Amino acid sequence: MNTEPLQDAPKPIPIHEPTTIIADPQPQLTPSEIRKLRRQFVTVTHPRVEACGHRLDLSRQPRMRNCQSCWGTWLNNHGELVQTADELHSTDGGVDMLIGLQGVKFLKWFRRFMAGVASLKPSLEQGGEIQ
Ligand SMILES: [Zn+2]
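# zinc ion complex -> structure
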């Protein structure tokens, strides 16, 4: 006869439903608020052009309007634009259109760029300023 007290039957391990984690409700931001936040928290540092040390924002034309290094680097990074400009440049009235779209400075540097991509490049390293 078994006199030992009955062992408690192993208790079923309680299974907890995973607690639903309710995330903080996402604030609905308007595009302009997002832009504002981005400006606030994302510090955009534009790369420096090695030759001249100017910072270059590739999304707009060089701020240093007469800096050959800036323009050379900028145009080098806008192959598609340069190609489009080149096509436009050779059409009737294309030059005026180019000036309207990109400005006189652009035209000047674009022409110089096209005339001597090869000769512009070495001078980039010297960072010469052309007035
Ligand atoms: Zn520069």
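# post-check
The chain has one domain: 31-131.
Residues 31-131 form one domain.
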